[in-house]
From TrEMBL:
It holds the Pfam family Cytochrom_B561. Residues 9-220 form the Cytochrome b561 domain. One of its GO terms (molecular function) is oxidoreductase activity. Residues 1-27 form the signal peptide. Residues 223-235, 247-256 have a biased composition (Basic and acidic residues). CDD domains: Cyt_b561_FRRS1_like (cd08760). It comes from Triticum aestivum. It is a multi-pass membrane protein. This is Cytochrome b561 domain-containing protein.
Length: 256
């Protein structure tokens, strides 16, 4: 019954997100039509202390969300596939869910901050990608919640879709953070070299761990296979060698 409800709810939720994205893009196109050609040239942004704080908070929220928490959630769920303890698997799964929920909450806060305080003319790449990214960020946890039960034929299709969408959110999100930093530098003339370097270091570390997980799994499997071969070899050797009784000597009676 629960599976049937999930199957009916998924198309409805997906349709809602698609309509939300379509309406946002349509509104963006309408606003772009009203802009004259001179406005398409990047205009310098006059920073007030309040606007500067809001921009920094917006950048921090998105960085923490799609640039850190969501990639960490991917690493956690991948690491759980190598854990043999059922309790450890549950702990890693709930940590994965917590990281993703926190990431969605921070991304939503960043979107709300942008809508209420920034100009939303959608005349730059950062804003256009951001609209699509917010929709994907909300679609991903909903797909995760509506996962089919184990053993159901649709489970493999769901897993592939959930995995690909999760990677897409992380990659597009990190790329949009870079684009946002570049846009900030263009509009304000302020240097973002330090923040770009820090973001690059953090993303490189996460990517390195992600790539090494498969190699580490291979090393562990090779060690387990080698240990199994060694045990089989010792067993075969012990079976082939003759066995002798512990006391295989003749006792000599001492005559008085």
């Amino acid at each position: 019954m629960l599976l049937f409800g999930r199957q009916r709810l998924l198309p409805a939720v997906s349709g809602f997100v698609i309509l939300l994205l379509a309406s946002s893009i349509h509104g963006a196109s309408d606003s772009l039509e009203g802009l004259n050609q001179s406005y398409k040239i990047v205009q310098p942004l006059e920073l007030t202390p309040k606007l500067s704080l809001q921009l920094k908070l917006h950048a921090f929220l998105l960085w923490s969300s799609v640039g850190f928490l969501m990639p960490i959630g991917v690493l956690l769920i991948r690491f759980s596939s190598n854990v043999k303890s059922a309790k450890a698997v549950r702990v890693l799964f709930y940590c994965h869910v917590a990281a993703q929920v926190a990431g969605v909450a921070l991304a939503t806060a960043a979107a709300a901050l942008s809508i209420t305080n920034f100009e939303n003319a959608f005349n730059n790449t950062h804003q256009r990608i951001g609209v699509a990214l917010y929709g994907l960020v909300w679609l991903q946890p909903l797909i995760g919640f509506l996962r089919p039960d184990r053993g159901v034929k649709a489970r493999s299709v769901w897993y592939l879709a959930h995995w690909l969408l999760g990677l897409a959110v992380c990659v597009v999100g990190v790329a949009n953070v870079y684009i946002g930093l570049h846009t900030y530098r263009e509009r304000t003339g302020r240097s973002v070299g330090l923040w770009t370097a820090l973001l690059t270091a953090e993303v490189s570390a996460v990517a390195l761990v992600y790539l090494l997980q498969d190699r580490w799994n291979h090393v562990v499997r090779q060690e387990e296979a080698a240990a199994g071969d060694e045990r089989r070899s010792e067993t075969e050797t012990s079976e082939e060698s003759p066995s002798y009784p512990a006391n295989d000597h003749k006792e000599v009676a001492v005559m008085p």
